[in-house]
Amino acid sequence: MAKQNQHMLALQAIPGIGPVTATALVSTVTDLSSFESGRQFAAGLTPRQIGTGGKTRQLGTSKRGDPCMRAILMHGARSQRSGWIERSLLHRPQWVVVAALDNKLARTVWAVLVTGKAFD
Questions:
Q1: Partner of 64 at 20 to 30 A CA spacing, among 44, 73, 74, 93?
Q2: Half-sphere exposure of 71 (CA within 13 A, CB side)
Q3: Interhelix angle for 19-28 vs 67-78, to 10°?
Q4: In 3-state terms, what secondary structure has residue 105?
Q5: Residue pLDDT tens, the chain, 120 long
């Protein structure tokens, strides 16, 4: 229980993650050893790509990851506001920007949970 509390406090230091999100993430992610990297941890949050004839197309977010965790991170990503987000929204659709933030947030969550250090 104490280790979970340490993880929850470390996660709450990440922008876009509050007490409810941190609790849900700690209870959802039980075995970090099954992920070798932050990229694998975020794999269910990235846009799918298909390609044929040398052309690639990006589709919507893949549905391969945990739907609960995907929804939790989506809400956290939507709550953030920064200059990068505002500039990106001028040139890209909102769902693309939110998916990029999801990916970034998931990788940050993985790093915090693996190292046990708070986000700075």
A1: 93
A2: 6
A3: 160
A4: helix
A5: 445 688 888 888 888 888 888 888 888 877 777 778 787 777 666 556 677 777 777 666 656 667 777 777 777 777 777 777 888 889 888 878 888 888 888 888 888 888 888 777
